[in-house]
Amino acid sequence: MTKAEEIRKEMNCHGGERKPFVFLIDFQMQNPQIFEIDDSKEVIFWQIPQSQKFDNLPVEPALKYWKINPVSFEKYKDGFDNVMFHIHNGDTYLLNYTQPTQVETNLSLEDIFHVSSAPYKIYLKDKFVCFSPETFVKTGNGKIYSFPMKGTIDADIENAKQIILNDSKEIAEHNTIVDLIRNDLSMVAENVTVEKFRYLTHIKTNHKNLWQVSSQISGDLPENYNEKIGDIIFKMLPAGSISGAPKPRTLEIISKAENYERGYYTGIFGVFDGKDFDSCVIIRYIENQNGQLVYKSGGGITFLSNAENEYDELIKKVYVPID
Fold first, then answer.
1. Inter-axis angle of helices 73-88 and 307-316, to 10 degrees?
2. pLDDT above 80: residue 323
3. Rounded to two decimals, what is the model's pTM?
4. List of domains in the chain
């Protein structure tokens, strides 16, 4: 039995017993983890909109410096060109292409967990920190919801809202992701509906303000869905917004084009409270690699994508959201 199969069954079991738990699933589903909710703080600090488990710092640290060293444009473009070849060949029509950026800062991963402001925050001790703005799926009142996020722009640009909402590349990319997530939800729910389409969310970061574009999709769950939480989650992985479409072939292309391990980046974190669960996509992510902090970021590539613009978006996403 694989580790993923083992964790999937354990999630089903806990859900059937209505036993609260926390789960963490990496992008390739090779190292998923599950924790009893009261014991989770020993290994992982976390915060979601409804609850949290972490120790407070006696004094909140300040961000004094933040220096980034992204991959060169030449290296980025090698992978980008590989992706575009496959897009024009018809192998994929949307692919989330990511790359690592080395970061230097006075803050530790735990410090960043405490000072960052986001709907979802995770700190796997000494491993990584994540401050994610993106819900994967959540449940409530017998329904399942997803909020795919695609489209980012500097909020200080004149007419930024109109530019991002009218950009043909962004529209095509968002349409594709909404369709993909709608199909994913249809595998586990009925009456799937797009309730809100392309609405804007404002994010304040340590160096600029951003607008991000999201949609809201929902579906009706079966009555005994709590007994199948593991089945529901794993059936939809990896998340469409950080992989692409069609999924199986796109995942093969990602592995060759990126040429690095995502690890828990673009995986899933979630909490089941005994009745409902809430989960996020692990983006806005910094990892400890033998003492070197590495920020992983990227964006969706379509046939309309431009390498310079996509490289710029990758760098814009290397931030810490601080109020």
1. 120
2. no
3. 0.90
4. 3-316 (3.60.120.10)
